[in-house]
Amino acid sequence: MNKCLFLFFLLTAKNIFGQTYSGEALLYSRSSLTGSARTTGTGGAVGSVGADLGSIAVNPAGIGLYRSSDVCITPSININHNEAQFNGSFKNQSATKISFNQAGIVFTKVLKKAVSNNEFTFNSVKLNTFSFAINYQRQTNFSRTVNFDGYNSSNSGIDAYNYYLNSTKNPLNTDNYPVEMVLAHQTNLIGYDSISGNYYSNVHSPLQQAGTIATKGGIDQIDFTLGGNVNDKFYFGAGLGIPILTYFNNSSFSEYNTKDSLSGFQDYTFSTNLRTTGVGVNAKFGIIYRPAAWMRIGVAYQIPTFYSITESYSAYMTTTFDTSYSQLSAEAYPFKYKLRSPMKGTVSASFYLKEHGFFSMDYEFQNYGSSRFNFGTDYKSFTDQTNADEKKYYTFGHVVRAGFEGAYKSLRARVGYSFSSTPYKKEFINKGFAETTHNATLGLGYRGKHFYADFAYVFGFTKDATSPYADFEVKNTLISHRMLLTLGWKIFREENAVKKTRQPKMNF
Known about the structure:
With 508 residues, the chain is mainly beta. It has a single domain, classed as Outer membrane protein transport protein (OMPP1/FadL/TodX) (Porin, Beta Barrel), CATH 2.40.160. The strands form 2 sheets. It has a 14-stranded antiparallel barrel with strand order 2-3-4-8-9-10-11-15-16-18-19-20-21-22. A hairpin with a 3-residue loop joins strand 12 and strand 13.
């Protein structure tokens, strides 16, 4: 018998391999090591360096260090390699993607001519320059594919559904349960005993299990930044950011009978498609101060990002028994909600060896548990529960970045490292797969009179876990390779009031 049915429901909860609204808030809040090749090549530790469009995204006060108008673009190549460990089996998946990482322009107005071309002295002129920038930058990249399979001799995903149903005793519909449980019941994977009032499973181990989780999209932000330079000692900046969110999650999970013949079960596949789009707004404020000619200190603050999000969700269940084949589908009406992601603070310091280079450090912090959802007045209890989960599971995240740039004439060499801590509270950390992130970077650069070019390589490493069903995990090791090339042009340069010194000039 072939049974087909299409259901419509209003989405109030979902369970996509452990993906919840709470998990999505974390996904949308964490940023990647990104920006221009110069910023990336120094490990992103540019909060007090400035004069680079990548650094403006960290601290808008960096715009005050520009001495000329500037335009640049940064394409990138991203290679991800994911190793999934599922019930003792390992499966590898690689993907390559070419994209634009950054593109922007800076307009600089020199208000008064500098008295010297030496970057390592101060200037008695009060307001030297004023600049305005428009910059596009990919903040987060969601592209990733996880494939897994393995043999399970102890349980089934349907067992987890069945246990949950019997523990709650609520009417079986999409108002009370995730859609996969409703579809499993309607395709006879879950049966009901009217005498005992209990549900039972028609799927029994041992089983062969397999699945795929494919995600793509990202958060692309457009920043409008303005700032200036006072006395070559104090730099200020402020910016308005418009993040554009696109997130797609296509997932499937299958179980295949290997020995059981009593129920007549052969196989089933549960698939989901999630499409999320949104737009937000945030603002940044920052200052950079030079207490000495060889040192800079920076502080930046970004207010929470306020998102308006729309998502569409569909689910499919196909089931094969000895004497029947069933196919059911369910789709949610487009669902709109609001999300406030955490504020972000950054403190920075950099130290300069005259024209020979610099060493820099950044520390960034966010309280991931402060994300807040608003699903509307009709879903107040669901809003309260989701926000309670935010506070329950997540804590402050810390990012430490360090970088070095060495200069010889027109050439630059860079090296950097960044570390992101786990976002989870101690009692919820998955030991060994806590979602800490490490990035090691290398970079090269050329600085001409007008043209400049930078190249960066980033090696990324992280471990995380996801669940195809309750109490069962897929453990992932993600290794990424990213190569970025920035090409730029200084539109004009400051003409100085005095003859240039013979000391080489560093273009910060």
